[in-house]
Write a structure and sequence with these properties.
The structure is a single chain. By secondary structure, this protein is of the alpha/beta class. The protein contains 14 helices and 18 strands. Helix 8 crosses helix 10. The relative contact order is 0.16. Bound molecules: zinc ion.
């Protein structure tokens, strides 16, 4: 319901917009879009306020569906450079085991700020580290997201298969199945909002086949079903992982996923690279979604997602920046460019257009999160918007403004609105002292390195 006492704002005549029949702009009341305006028309609704968007490209707020916020503390980490996934993880697990609560708080604040400044309005995080000092990790993340006013889907990740049982992570970062399930239930009951316009949602996310026991996968799926929350994990990211599944479970990754009851439209997977034809069919038929993470896949040399075959089979594709130790940035608009270019290497230029990249990062990502109220500029949707100006050197001489954002390499939104509220103006987060945040965050990162090498 829109409160009729809320002021009505017209975001007027954008230079370009990623939506149909909306060249005259968009009308907002409360947290929703109440009218879209055709070219040359004025709103039918009585307007209280107008924002002149004639120098801006207007997009639905971008949606990031895979991240690990805490990894902003270990960007370009010397011991992890130039490695592929398994050795990279082994170099970092022991560092991450030392993360303190205040470090998680500031890394969450920093990652969310970076995302917001790049036009992202909804972010999902996959937090799977719960060493003894960090058992309330998700509570900390909820607090940080609320401070910034960002929409989040925080996934309660988990690791239960340590080195001594044949898993990849050290024992110091794994928990028991009982601890994980009871905390998952507590978090859903405390924070998960299943209403339209929800700002905080919880999903369940055992980390990966090589760090989680079979029992935990099965029981997590049952818990997700019981509370009607979504399921997320990493799958088919590397050939090492496929070998691990064959050796440990005698199954390929998708067969393993099926064996633990995860082949459903409740599930979205990060990466989803190494699938054969039958596996793609099976995932599509069951409505399993895939979050494509192009930069991370290039950085760790993991491979290229079969996005179009997956879509054709029935899977939804969305985008994610992935954690900030394998990107090492949290820039969502830049990630669309990466997705477009990486996917062109597989499918050619005519099949992977800039519109395709926008679709993946908006409607596609929203659907991965099970949301129909975001990801689109249309009447009745949440007023989550990103506006970009083309007044930098990089855009000069460009002609198609929507294409230019990706082709010329946009980095920063000029304005961002979430649920009808401006959060970014003139390229700055309202109320934030950016240099103070950088200083607090980089000090935390230094301290973590000291703790890890002590
Ligand atoms: Zn990841």
């Amino acid at each position: 319901m829109v409160d009729i006492n809320e002021p009505v704002i017209w975001i007027k005549n954008p230079a370009a917009v990623f939506a149909q029949n909306c060249e005259g702009g968009v009308v907002i009341q409360g947290q929703k879009i109440i009218e879209i305006v055709k070219l040359g028309h004025s709103p039918k609704t009585q307007i209280d306020d107008t924002y002149d968007a004639s120098e801006s490209v207007l997009l639905p707020g971008l949606i990031n569906t895979h991240h690990h916020f805490y990894q902003t503390l270990t960007r370009a980490y010397p011991e992890a450079l130039n490695k592929e996934l398994f050795p990279w993880l082994k170099s970092l697990y022991k560092v991450w085991a030392n993360i303190q609560p205040e470090m998680l708080a500031v890394s969450t604040e920093l990652a969310l700020s970076e995302l917001l400044l790049s036009g992202c309005t909804t972010a999902s995080d996959h937090h799977y580290l719960f060493p003894s000092q960090l058992e309330n990790a998700i509570d900390i993340q909820v607090e940080e997201a609320q401070k910034l006013g960002m929409r989040v889907v925080l996934t309660r990740g988990s690791m239960s298969l340590g080195e001594k049982d044949g898993g990849l992570p050290p024992q110091s970062v794994v928990q028991t199945k009982e601890q994980i399930l009871s905390d998952s239930e507590r978090l859903i009951k405390t924070y998960h909002d299943n209403q339209e316009g929800a700002m905080i949602q919880i999903a369940l996310a055992p980390c990966s086949p090589f760090s989680v026991t079979t029992d935990l996968m099965i029981e997590t799926a049952a818990l997700a079903e019981q509370y009607d929350v979504r399921l997320h994990t990493h799958l088919a990211e590397t050939i090492d992982e496929e070998k691990f599944c064959l050796e440990k479970f005698g199954l390929r990754t998708v067969d393993y996923l099926e064996s633990v009851g995860w082949l459903s439209d409740r599930t979205w997977l990060a990466h989803g690279i190494h699938f054969n034809k039958q596996e793609i069919e099976k995932l599509g038929q069951n409505g399993v979604g895939i979050c494509h993470c192009p930069t991370s896949n290039m950085m760790l040399a993991s491979g290229i997602c079969h996005s179009l075959e997956l879509e054709e089979a029935g899977s939804i594709i969305g985008l994610g920046v992935d954690g900030s130790a394998s990107n090492d940035g949290s820039n969502m608009i830049a990630e669309l460019r990466q997705a477009m270019y990486l996917q062109r290497l597989r499918y050619g230029a005519s099949k992977i257009t800039h519109q395709k990249a926008y679709d993946w990062a908006t409607k596609g990502s929203a659907a991965l999160l099970g949301r129909s109220d975001i990801g689109e500029i249309a009447v009745g949707k949440q007023a989550d918007l990103a506006l970009f100006k083309l007044d930098e050197l990089r855009f000069s001489g460009s002609h198609d403004s929507l294409a230019a954002l990706l082709l010329c390499g946009a980095q920063k939104a000029d304005r961002v609105m979430i649920a009808g509220q401006w959060k970014v103006m003139d390229g700055k987060i309202i109320g934030q002292d950016e240099s103070e945040l950088i200083s607090r965050h980089s000090n935390a990162a230094k301290k973590l390195r000291q703790l890890a090498s002590a």
